[in-house]
Every structure is written in C-alpha cells, then in structure tokens.
Write a structure and sequence with these properties.
2 domains, 41% helix, 11 helices, Nucleotidyltransferase, domain 5, alpha/beta, 5-stranded mixed beta sheet, homodimer, globular, 317 residues, 12 strands
Chain lengths: 317, 317
C-alpha cells in the first residue's frame, strides 16, 4: 500500500466500523466493534482509540490521518461533538482529544455528513448540485448538498432528516419530539414492526423464528423478505411507505437531483425503495418528484467510514 | 425620484401587490389587484401587465426593470413558471413574455424566494449564513438560505415548506399530498379554524360575527385575537402550535440562525409566534433549537414585492 493511506471510522448508534483506506478508496482492513462497549465518554474514547490502533497495526504503510463520523451534532469549526441521542458524546472535544491520543491529524464530522461526502464526491450523488442522503440504521442520519456543497447549517446541526416530524401527534421519539421519521423508518422501527408481526402472526416466518428463540430484528426482516416471505415483505414495504413520505418532504424542501438511501436497512434494496418511490410519485410536487432519482448508496453500509476517510485525506492533501 | 427605480410585483394566491421601489427600498406607489380576476393564463398575464402599467404611470422617473414573485416553481435559468397550485401559470415562459410586453428587463422568481432575498439582503435575516422563511398566506411559501445563498434546488423547486408533511395520514392537501403544513398553518387554515369555532361556539366573538353576517376569515381571527377575544386567541395559538412543529422541522433540517415568518397571517404577531417558539423549544434538537431566532419579516406583507424589486435591480445594477 502507498504511504498515502488514512483510517476512516464510522461510529454508529450500536456499531463501529473502521477501515484503512488508500487514495483510490480501496478498503484494506476493516475493524468492527460494538459502540456500546463504551458506556461512558471515557470508555467510548478508549473503544475508538483501540479500533484505530488495531487498523493502524494492520496497515502496511504509514497512516497519515484519521477521520471520524459520529452520530452527533458536530461543530464544524471546533470538531466538538455537541449532542447525541444514542451515545455518551455530549460536549466532547473529539477532534482535539483524538489528535492528541493518536498523534496524527484528525477530522470529525457527523456520521451522515461523512456518508454524504463519500456519496457526493465519489458515489451515488457524484455531480449533483443538490442532493440528500438518509442513512437508516439504529436511528436515521441525514446529509444535504446544495449548490454542490455539504450544508452544515449555522453550527453543524443541519441534515437531521431523522428528526423531521411526519406525524405531529405520533409516538414519542428518543429526542423528546413526536412522530419523527426515525420512529417510523429506522432499522429500529423495522425490527419493532417485525416483532409485532411475530406476536400477532405466530404462523408467519417471524412467528416461527420467535418460537425457535431467534431475535426478531430488522436484519431478520430483510433476510426473510429477500427469501420471499409475504409478511416480511409487507413489513419492509410499510417502512418503505413512510420512507416515501419522508423523501417526499425532502423533494419538496430541496428539489434535489438525487436522494441517496444508506445504512443497514438499505440491505432490503428494492423491497424498500420501490414502495418509497411510489409514494414520492403520488405525493410530492411536480415537477420535482419527476426529476429526482432515489437510489441506494454506492458504498453500501461503508459510506460513513469511507466519507470519514475522505475528510481525513482532505487534511493531508 | 431618481432614474433608478424599478417595479416589484408580488403575485399571491389571491392578491397581487405591485410597487415602485427606489434604490433605498422606499416604496413610492402601491397597486393592488385580485389575482383571480385573471381566470386563465392570458387574463392573468393581462392583470400583471395592467398592474405594472398603473405603477409605471404613477412613477416619477424611468422604470428600469420589473421583478415578479409568483406562487409557482420557477426554473431559475429560463424564468418559466412550471407549476402552481393556486393560479393558472403552468409552463408559462413568464420572463420572456413579460420582457416583451413591458419593454424592460424582467426578473422572475418564486414569490417566497423573492421574499427570502428581501429579508436576507435587507431585512430580518441580514448576515445569516443559514436561514429559512415561511410566508403564511392563502398557502405557505418558503425560502432557504445556506452558506449565505438562496437555495433554489436542481430546478427552482426548493423551499416548499408548505408542502412538508407533518401529519402523514392527515387531511388531503390541494397538491394531492396529505397533512401538508399548509393544511394546518396557512391563512386558509386559520380562517377554517375560525369558521369552525363560529359554528361550534355561537356566543363567541366568531359566533356573533357569523350571526351578524360577517365573513369568518383569518383576518377576522387576527383582529379579534388582538382585541383580546379568548376563543380567537386559542384559534391563533393552535395555528401557532403547528407552526412550531413545522419550524421545529426547519430547525432540525437546516440548523438556521434565523427563521423568518411572513405573509398575511404574521399580522397576529406574538400571538402566533410565542406558541410556535414554545413548541420549538420543547421539540426541536438541542443545541439548534437554542441557537435559532424566530422572528417576523422586516418588510411585513411586502417582503415578496420588495424582493422582486431587488431581483429587478440586480438586472440593471
């Protein structure tokens, strides 16, 4: 490997993915961790350092910089993680702390902004003047590109599509709001819908899995749906329906050329996106609804990690 | 008046406001029309020309350019009004047609983008890197500023906050979608809520107005609310509540420094904005919710007209 490699780290609400990435965006070593091994801020920082060090030892050449995508509002000027719903990162000066502990330049951005950077510069949104990204995982992360640039907002808080209310009097969200898109469309929502189906329909694939002692998760729903299980397909499609309502809002608000959908839930592929596209075609404004492409991430579940690596490369370019 | 004046025209869903505007943004002559005098596209264009000519005759000096804000998606490259929910402007090449008929350079933009330009360059959002505007009238228009520039989207369709769904299974909107913010928060929504109160509560101010043969409108609701009528205040506050849900979404999506609220309904002032701010404080994400100012337009109901004039000035600057 050339001397030009960097490490990208995507810290999700439950999972951590790190990788050694070269200048051609080839990923050479992947490291997985459970994010929740770190219960407090200090333990979480230790998990991050350990993951980076494991990747660095596996790398053939020098690691020139490290980028982190974190599920938090990140102040772009200071690299401070201000708030996060899912992890203990409140007011942590992540950029400075990690630069000191790792001894290399460090970039920090919101995980979904990092994914947006990867997809806009090298992936499914290349060339778009206006684009949006939604990553469906434990929660929903989001990114925005307008006039060719990632929109971070006044203080790094832009792009939180997951906390866009689509049901004003709907269920209480972890953020304190009601009826957020994240409550209806994330991987957590998919797992919840699957678990309800398992109880309500004991003869279904979900019901049999439950009886066999399996965990009823969003991943199981995706797996059964791909196998043709009709109940699982309905559950995935119902998530796709509300995803379509959310993307319809994105279309009306931004008039993007492309909406990119990533995160673990995109493993469902067209079983998720086809119902979403149908809702957008029916409900969003013309001609914006006819001009938008709704596509999966090019980098699959690795967009955030690769985007974090791209941000790290920018530091040493 | 100097030779440098222009005419700005704000075409709303029901009203048209034109004005002769000088370089210091002083408005010298105002012309009002009912937009719906023009039933088809040709009649509507005649109404626009007549309004401009009336203003031009009243102007002391030469009118160097004319700007139009229209309640339509406008392609920024061509000045074609693509689609409108409220008026017959579908696929009308407004910029070219008006330039030919008026004999001066013509600027055309979405009415709410025009208002956003006025408020960002000279009004309540001066200096903001990231801002949003909602104009509450017959419908809801919207504008976005990111990184200091008005965001128009891929084809001029950005900023349609009025057609952001906040009640996924809510009432059918004129656009074909369900539960759009416009169905719950526009002047039309305010008038509808007032009319329902008039019937339900015959002893209320609304009920007495109805018995006296008055039209129960949003404007009456605002008037009674300012007079201290408790039912009218509740009606305005309930609109303010859903406005707050909508602005909470704006805050989570854009992390703006300021959200500017205009249109006819802003005549209710703090009776509308105080309940909206309360909802944003309770439901939007920290720290974005604490960083945002929620304020009325500086130019009141004239933001769109003045913004159209500013766009016209840009043509001859």
């Amino acid at each position: 490997m050339s001397a030009g490699c960097v490490i990208g780290v995507d810290l999700g609400g439950t999972k951590l993915l790190a990788g050694v990435v070269d200048a051609d965006l080839n990923v050479h070593h992947r490291v997985f961790r459970h994010a929740r091994e770190g219960k407090g801020p200090d333990q979480l920082l230790d998990v991050l350092v350990a993951a980076v060090e494991e990747a660095r030892e596996a790398a053939d050449g020098e690691v020139r910089a490290v980028g982190f995508g974190v599920p938090s509002l990140v102040d772009p000027a200071t690299g401070v993680a201000n708030t996060t719903v899912h992890l203990p990162l409140r007011d942590v000066p992540l950029k400075d702390v990690m630069a000191e502990r790792l001894g290399v330049p460090v970039a920090v951005d919101n995980d979904a902004n990092a994914a947006m950077v990867a997809e806009h510069r090298h992936g499914a949104a290349v060339g778009a003047s206006c684009a949006a990204l939604l990553t469906l995982g434990t929660g929903i992360g989001g990114g925005i590109v307008a006039d060719g640039r990632v929109v971070r907002g006044a203080h790094g808080g832009a792009g939180e599509w997951g906390h866009m209310v689509i049901a004003a009097d709907g269920p209480l969200c972890t953020c304190g709001n009601r009826g957020c898109l994240e409550m209806l469309v994330s991987g957590t929502a998919l797992g919840r819908a699957a678990a309800e189906a398992a109880v309500a329909l004991p003869d279904s694939g979900f019901g049999r899995a439950l009886a066999a002692g399996r965990s009823i998760t969003g991943m199981l729903a995706t797996e059964l749906a791909h196998d043709g299980d009709p109940v699982a397909r309905d559950v995935v499609a119902s998530i796709g329906h509300y995803l379509g309502v959310g993307i319809g809002n994105v279309v009306n608000i931004l008039n993007p050329e492309v909406v990119v959908v990533g995160g673990g839930v995109i493993a469902a592929g067209e079983l998720l996106l086809a119902p979403a596209r149908k809702v957008v075609a029916e409900r969003a404004l013309a001609p914006s609804r006819d001009q938008v492409r709704i596509v999966p991430t090019r980098f699959g579940d690795a967009s955030g990690m690769i985007g974090a690596a791209v941000l790290a490369m920018d530091l040493v370019a």
